[in-house]
Amino acid sequence: MSLVLATLQDEYIAGLEAFRVEGEPEAPHVFAAYESWISTFACAVRIAAVQAADLERRLGELREDWSRIIAEARHREGRVRATRRDSALSAIFDALPGTPVLTTSTVTRMHGVTTTVAQHALAQLADYGILEPISIGRAQRA
């Protein structure tokens, strides 16, 4: 909501200013001021809901693409079974939309795995093209 209201800055400020009206609650000018603010807020809620639904759809499509990529890569590697649900790779994959930037220490802390396991899972996801390693500082990769 805050991001949507930030994009409707002029309407947002006008609505807040109108809401500061003085008078009896039933007075027409007070009612109009309240209506202005409620209309602005309702518009922002509608936009936020549409954007949230679009984001959910796009993330779902992205997850489907990633799942297909992993399955195809594992098949090329001769692995016929799906990734175990309790594997580090699965845990990272499941949390990826909420944590798009990861380091080995982030993975170990979030998923309770060893550094070696975290490094291996991150390397697999990079090999599969799902993650892109970047430098985030001296001898630090994300």
What structural class is derived from the secondary structure elements? mainly alpha
What would you report as the Rg, rounded to the nearest angstrom?
Answer: 24 Å
Low-confidence stretches: none
pLDDT averaged over residues: 88
Written overview of the protein:
Helices cover 67% and strands 4% of the residues. It has helices at residues 2-7, 9-19, 28-76, 88-95, 104-111, 115-127; strands at 135-137, 140-141. Strands 1-2 form a two-stranded antiparallel sheet. Helix 2 (9-19) runs antiparallel to helix 3 (28-76).
Task: Give the arrangement of secondary structure elements.
Elements (H helix, E strand, L loop, with lengths): L1 H6 L1 H11 L8 H49 L11 H8 L8 H8 L3 H13 L7 E3 L2 E2 L1
Helix pairs in contact: 2-3, 5-6
Short note summarizing the structure:
It contains 6 helices and 2 strands.
Features:
142 residues; mainly alpha; elongated
